[in-house]
Amino acid sequence: MMATHSLNLLPKSFLPQLPTFTSLRPKLRQNLSIRSVFTGIVEEMGQVKDLGLADRGGFDLKIGARVVVEDVKLGDSIAVNGTCLTVTHFDTEEFTVGLAPETLRKTSLEELERGSLVNLERALQPVSRMGGHVVQGHVDGTGVIVSMEAEGDSLWVKVKADKALLKYIVPKGFVAVDGTSLTVVDVSDQDSCFNFMLVAYTQQNVVIPTKKVGQKVNLEVDIMGKYVERLLLTTATFSMNTPQENKS
């Protein structure tokens, strides 16, 4: 039986004692290998049943669900609010995933409490329809909801993001917010914000409308932008390091 906590109420001394590996982070961000793929189309909203320190010293997160456990196996990947996590235990009504310290540092999962709703999606199978866009479940960082305004039965949501992420977000492009594939409407570099609109159906089937202004959301930008940036940087570096006589 795991010790029950709200992860953001765990002793603050715990995470700082862990190695931050700051010097390794640029290399980690360059790793663009794809192990599991999602579409960003949420299959169901699950509910956090239990969370906190596990017997082995890590963190466990137990989630009540019905759809995503229908054909689950140990070791399968399930995106929880857009974070790709590995199933370590399951039955017909719930499943458990492990959380690494770096996952807590990088995502909004530390704000979860018992009873919190979460977006769930199983990893894509080769025969599945691609209803959204390519989502890896590798959260790039978090944003903060700065406004939520209704227009008819739709909901405008504005999110503030770090400029390092905002450069990959473009109007009419894709972004995964808490694992939900969404189309960006506008981007404001001046305010470091972007916005999107949720139609009535989406509002009823994802967790974003249940959140409040000031809360965090997980963000994963479109991987194509990162591939293009990496290619351009590599090409430019190669060009600069190539002797002039070889360029002709």
- Tertiary shape: globular
Label the structural class. Answer: alpha+beta
Tally of helical segments: 6
CATH class of the domain at 141-223: Mainly Beta
Output the helix-strand order. HEEEEEHEEEHEEEEHEHH
Whole-angstrom Rg: 19 Å
- What's the CATH topology name of the domain at 141-223? Elongation Factor Tu (Ef-tu), domain 3
Write out the strand line-up for the largest beta sheet, numbering strands in chain order: 10-9-13-7-8-12-11
CATH architecture of the domain at 141-223: Beta Barrel
Q: Quick one: biggest sheet?
A: 7 strands, antiparallel
Helix content: 10-25%
Number of distinct beta strands: 13
Low-confidence stretches: 11-34
Beta-strand proportion: 25-35%
Q: Estimate the mean pLDDT confidence.
A: 84
Q: What is the CA–CA distance across the termini?
A: 68 Å
Function: Catalyzes the dismutation of two molecules of 6,7-dimethyl-8-ribityllumazine, resulting in the formation of riboflavin and 5-amino-6-(D-ribitylamino)uracil.
Pathway: Cofactor biosynthesis; riboflavin biosynthesis; riboflavin from 2-hydroxy-3-oxobutyl phosphate and 5-amino-6-(D-ribitylamino)uracil: step 2/2
Domain Lumazine-binding: 37-133, 134-232
Keywords: Repeat, Riboflavin biosynthesis, Transferase
